[in-house]
Amino acid sequence: SWRWGVLLLALGTAAVAVAARDAAVPEPSQETSAADTGRLPRAARAGIGLVFLGVVLEWSVSFWGATYLRDVVGLDRDTAVTAMALFFGAMLTGRVAGALLARRQAPEQLLVAAFLTVAAGLAVAASTTSAPAVLVALVLLGLGVSVVFPLGISLAIAAAQGAPGWEGQVWDAE
Predict the structure, then answer these.
(1) Alpha carbons 160 and 108: distance in angstroms, whole number
(2) Mean of the pLDDT values across residues 131-141?
(3) CA dist., res. 66 & res. 56, Å (int)
(4) What string of H, E and C letters represents the secondary structure of 49-84?
(5) Which of 30, 32, 136, 149: CA 20 to 30 A from 167?
(6) How far apart are CA 152 and CA 20, in angstroms?
(7) Could you give the angle at the alpha carbon of 172 between the alpha carbons of 55 and 38, nearest 5°?
(8) Using CB atoms within 10 A of its CB, is residue 36 exposed (0-12), middle (13-18) or buried (19+)?
(9) In sequence order, what are the residues at sequence separation of 6 or more whose Cβ sits closer than 8 angstroms to the Cβ of residue 115?
(10) Other beta carbons within 10 Å of 42
């Protein structure tokens, strides 16, 4: 069943979130260099894991969403394809809102909110075939997953500063 794939993805996301829970993002400096170990810091690896899981979820919903809406929910093909605009619109809205919120909120808070939103969307999508409910689930999925990739990249880059091969190369906005 397709639900096993979603369950594994949700468990993988939860595992990364638990692993990153206590991983502080170090301030870039020579003292926090990972050069002694030759590995990326744990927070950087967690950020990379978040990026991977976020991209997997984005593309899974993008690729299979219309088929799910047609085959499981019972929408006709044209309506199912059109309804996917809800997911993509929610992702766009979430990315813009997430960028604004990231200036005022801690990334950890945003990630927790994103995971809870994704979990709610997955729970609704997995528990019913009611078209209105599944369409709401698509919006929840889009809003929740929209910030996972950007926050994961930010976490990975911030934590990797000082790691072997990084050498403090950061673009200066000035």
Answers:
(1) 17
(2) 95
(3) 16
(4) HHHHHHHHHHHHHHHHHHHHHHHHHCCCHHHHHHHH
(5) 149
(6) 11
(7) 60
(8) exposed
(9) 13, 14, 17, 144
(10) 15
With left for phi above 0 and alpha for psi between -120 and 50, is residue 165 left, alpha or beta?
left
Residue among 24, 55, 9, 64 at smallest CA distance from 148? 55
Say if residues 28 and 162 touch (Cβ distance below 8 Å).
yes
pLDDT tens digits, one per residue of 106-116: 888 898 899 99
User: The tokens of 10 are what?
Assistant: 């949700």
**Per-residue DSSP letter, 26:** P
Lowest mean pLDDT among 36-40, 53-57, 142-146: 36-40
Helices 2-21 and 42-68 cross at an angle (nearest 10°) of 160
Task: Render the burial of 84-101: b for 16+ CB within 10 Å, e for the rest.
Answer: bebbbebbeebbeebeee
Q: What is the mean pLDDT of residues 17-35?
A: 57
Quick one: average pLDDT of 125-150? 94
Q: Is the pTM of this model over 0.70?
A: yes
CA dist 82 and 69 (Å) reads: 10
